[in-house]
Amino acid sequence: MKTLLLSGWTSNPAAVLCCAAGAALYFVLFGASRRAWFLAAAEAVVLLALASPVNALADGYLFSAHMLQHILLLLVAPPLLLASLPPTVSFPMHPVAGWLAGVGAMWFWHAPALCDAAAASRPIHAVQTLSLLALGSAFWLQILAPCESRRLRPLPAVLYLFTACTACSVLGIILTFSPVTICSRYMHPVDRLGIAGLLNGWGMTMNRDQQIGGLLMWVPMCFLYLCAIFSQFARWYGERDAEPTI
Amino acid sequence: MNEATLAPDSLAAERDDAFRRLAWLSTVDHKKIGILYLLTALVFFVAGGVEAIFIRLQLAVPNNTLLSPETYNALFTLHGTTMIFLVAMPALFGLANYFVPLQIGARDMAFPRLNAFSFWVVPMGGILLHLSLLSGSAPSMGWFAYAPLSEKAYSSQLGVDYWALSLFVLGIGSVGTSINIIATVLCLRAPGMTLRRVPLFTWMNFVNSFIVILALPVLNAGLAMLLIDRRLDAHFFMPSGGGSAILWQHIFWAFGHPEVYIVAVPAFGIISEIIPVFSRKPIFGYEFVAASTVAIAILSLGVWAHHMFTVGMGRTADLFFVVSSMLIAIPTGVKVLNWTATLLHGRIQFKTPMLFAIAALVQFLCGGLTGISHAMAALDWQTKNSYFLVAHFHFVIVGLIVFMIMGGLAYWLPKITGRMLSERIGKWTFWLMTIGFNMTFIIQHFLGFAGMPRRVYTYPDLPGWAWMNMVSTIGVFFMTAASLLLVWNIVASLLWGKPAGDNPWDAWTLEWATTSPPPHENFHELPPIRGRRPLWDYANPDRPDPVVGPVHAVEPAPPDKTKSAVLLFIFSETGFFLVLILAFLFYNSTPQPGPGPKELDLLKTGLFSLCLFASSFTLWRSEVGEHNRDNGSMIRWLAATLVLGGVFIIGQGLEYWGLFKSGVAVNTNLFATTFFTLTGFHGLHVCIGLIALAIVLGFAVGGEFKHRPSVALKAVGYYWHFVDVVWVLVLTVVYILPRLR
Amino acid sequence: MEFIATGNLTAFDPQSPGARAIFNLWHLGFLVFGAIFVLVAGAIFYALVRYRWREGELDPKQIAGNKTVEIIWTAIPFLVVVMLFTATARTMSLSDPPPAPKPDLIVVGHQWWWEIRYPDSGVVTANEIHIPVGKPFSVRLDSVDVLHEFWVPQLGRKMTTVPGHLNNIWIEADAPGTYLGFCTEFCGLQHAWMHFHVVAEPQADFDDWMRAQRKPAAAPVGEAAVKGLAVFRQFTCVNCHAVNGIHADARVAPDLTHFGSRKFLGAGVRENTPENLRAWLKDPQEVKPGALMPNFNLTGEQIDQLTAYFEEQR
Fold first, then answer.
1. Residues B338 and B207 in one domain
2. Contact B449 C11 (CB under 8 A)
3. What does the pLDDT look like over B371-405, one tens digit per residue?
């Protein structure tokens, strides 16, 4: 446990550097403002995913930790990132493209071959990380575009989020109840950190690990989508004399 | 605007026929259909009720021999199936049919003919279910038909087949009704009645309809698989042939748990109408009651496995389903607290509908709390499948739903018949029902803890069991008396009831703004709508409700109802195919002994698939032709689509023929079963699409679309593109993925 | 709760650590749910009394809601849920620990009886489980036909027996006694009569029982019993029933070695007395309609002989 908590933290200097560069770029482009706190939060989430024990576990040990990484990168960091941008920034994108980006990212990276490739090779893993952040941002752009008028109207947004939630849940269901291993790389972990015994002590078996991964994608992810859906309802019912309505 | 677009000739025809009794058979009027739904529910309520009486009589004393085990098992199976599918659902659909259009100021449902079809499916399904009795074999495997007991090896007679067919048909009808309700609420609202202002009964039916169109197809896919097992000797759910008994439970409860909410949410809607009116206050926290309904709807789709805490899913899965199931308690609790808060500081009038609503509220509070105890897996391990569970779900289904159907009838029958019910008989009904219900079911909680399992036709004289069962049985007679009184009250009010007037309860939603019963076109004139209680604003101009939503906004045109309906239908079909695709993945994740995906000819199928994909392109060209008012181009491209689709079907036929010749049939192994099921249902959809395209082509050639834009082409087009997209998935999953391994 | 005196079979009288853990969770749940019920139902009742409408009263102030209140009563249930979840998770691991690598006992569900096997000793019996007091037994659950469910209310959790999917539970009893168990998953015609008994006894008694069970069936002694064995062979009983020591090893129906030592017959439908056994042999369909044993139309004499044979098999 101690090894894990201590050595896990230093394992990813690249991520730390990228975050620092991102922060620098942000301040050059937009200057300091209150919104920068959101950037800080986003980077904290990214670092939590990439430079913490989560990453150490995801790196060859636990499929479920790898899934947690994906959730953080795709669902948590991008909304914070978008919230940090000033309203003047705008990226045009069609809602269908956004939806496909978010849902596609999850499905694409869990095809067994790609899942293994990303776990085995550092460059592919880097591409995966960046693509999750980018595609996640594309997905959340429809809901949280810095420029208000570019966001989806509340009820279409509910539909957008609900269908995305369903599509991810289906993948979660497949992972949970699949009788075969999705990511075979986690089958024979190389015990670099000497924590295999610890994991066994937690009762972690291959099947259970994949089940937890699938269930993470299913239940907590749905919960996040649900929260987003409620914020849309709050927005909808909160609207007063402003704009046309459906 | 927003008038129901009945063809004028059918309206005239119906008026001419109105004096004939036959008009009821051919009616497309939502009010008559609503009444027919309610009458059908009543007929089956009598059947289900008599079944319940016999069940309780058999259990009144230990070692009773009144009924044989065969009869008892058939009775509880029929009782469950009847009460859920032929009483609760039709009664609630009936109320929705009658009152949703009235509450939003519409003239009718969006699709009156579809509405009539969906209704007539219910008696047909009911007859199909009871036909099994004539075949001498009532279904007797319990209403959730757990495999392998429901398989041919253990239930060889036709009962299960009739049961499955009946539910399949009823499922189609329910999806039809729900698409209709959604389209009505989306497209036919009166000016000013924005979605943020609709009464909660309408809102909840609207949200509920989404659960129906997502959940019912899951059941239908499962039933199709069960029937393929039973009639074609396949082994989806037969462990002896490699199938999985647990998969049936997943499929059934993925439908079955949402089903609980399908009947509960409209009942929530009725409570949310009655409590404010008789407390003389608006509902407390409309937004929260409305949004929590959405939360319940979404969560209800992801918690089914809490019915399976004892089948050995593994600790992890159990824990996650504990969490997700408990989460549902939060939005449900919010609802209960909002209803309670509506009562506080009100002026509560104890009229019959209100009495039912209050009892339902308290009983649901109890049923909901015992529900949480079932979500706590460790408790469920003790209480599941005991009488504690029986008590729990009857507290929800009778204590909430039946009570609210009765309350809803007491509230709305004056509007339907134009005559008041007797308050005195109503109160007698209420008290008999409440006493009887609680007598029957409270004691069953303890019976469950004393170890009595459910679904036993008799039991030994164990300490405590006898007297508790006797008490439970006695309660049934109170409920029977209450039901008889209810019917008598209705008959008496039809004969001698005093006229109701437009608004006997001084209520505030639009159904009370018209005469009782409403005229054929529902409204002569609508009051202005600027909030949630138009009649309150009208009656209290000095203290109107605050305006809801923007005041001066221009309302955009409502979406086209046909397109919405087709999209909803596609939404629903997606669920059906999803189950079949998941079943294919599940059974083929490890290679099956015998023929496998590698026997399939990818190249040949790929070529035929190209035809299908090309047909989407030609159909798009046809739509462009239609858009440019170029009739010739539209017809040519449409014909090309038909040809390409036909070629694809021929290709499928050739592939099937090749497989049959090499001895691969649907029951060969699980690969063959899942392959034929998935591609077969897809082929069926292609064929239906081809027929629809041919009809559109016929109309186009006949010049039908020369002068007005064709919604039909657009609608069929959506469907056709959807069928193509499904094929992309099928091709990937069946032909390509297995080769990558 | 305890006011309902239901003797010794209720879940309110837990007799094993697992059942006790669940019972403690039930206490917590009862407290929490009871408090919620009293609070909410109390508020409803208060409203009904305090705010009832009196003839001629005007409509009250039209209150449409309060956001703060809503947030509070969404948050509180959330906390309650978190608390109940923690308690549930704890109880789950207490009442259902991971299985032992090798089961001490295998229970197989049949339509409509239970096959009980002790893999270590090879003893096979039916509908009656013996365990030593205070020693947890790892039980593997299996089924040969449809779903059944194994439940002993006083000894803890229930678990389905699924064909093609083995499940495991633990049983243990703190005190000597006979505990009644049921099949709780509907399994067809005679689901009602698929009871079993768990006999918990001190280790020495258990060892004695085990020793007796391991012996092959004793050769018949009495004259009638000798003829009974002949009848048993003649009427193809051996096609379904096993009796250890007479070359009968079919596993379709209950193993009848030491049948005379069992307390019940027909999975609990009758006590195992000579009269009841006669009634059963005369027509099993009369005693337990639908049971898979047909009526062999035995003569009274044959019935007496068979009964004599099985009475000796203790």
1. yes
2. yes
3. 999 999 999 999 999 999 999 999 999 999 999 99
